[in-house]
Model the fold of this input.
Amino acid sequence: MKKILVLFIFFIFQNIMNAQINELGVFIGGSNFIGDVGKTNYISPNEPAIGILYKWNKSPRHAYRFSYMQSNITGNDLDSEIPGRQQRGIKFKNNIKEFSAGLEFNFFDFNLHESLIKKISPYVYSGLSYFVYDELFVVNGETKKDFTSSTFAIPMIVGVKSNILKNFVLGIEVGARYTFTDNLDGSNPKNENLEPLKFGNINSNDWYVFTGFTLTYTFTEKPCYCAD
Done:
């Protein structure tokens, strides 16, 4: 995990040295889980989430984006509106540490060289995420940890952003992650010895969602978007 974080930071600073417009900032918000335990609301943050992000704006319409996010995700059947889940009464807590890289697309021109002109634009982002989590299992109604694992996810983010001050961009976004695991909640453990403990829909993978604000500081070494 430490090696991945070091490589991630090194890659960011390598791009900063050669990039046209850079953004470096933070994400602050919340997270929620969608799976076989707890509520089924798509956007319902119930745990705090934080992160750091870097953007390399290649043009006023698109940027390469890299981020690290982390949060606990939780679920409690007693919070669900589904009677069967309420009767079952399972709850869980997991921890997500996510690295993501991909492309952010602006619907309107967002030229950061024009720092004195107010701009606003909706945007979308997608790419590939890699995250670390705990493999869980449920026995006698109690959720326990088996081991630490990792897998990939597909992030799908929509948001709106504006340059609120010179060199500062504020955004609000909602980002769902479709994961390549069905066991963030302990319903489908990988361990073959725990196969009798499986429950729920084992043919549908889990999702988690980050909702919140981004605040980035912009800086550049070049006066315009131009070819090297």
Observations:
- Residues 2-18 form the longest helix (17 residues).
- The longest strand covers residues 142-165.
- The mean pLDDT is 90.
- The radius of gyration is 20 Å.
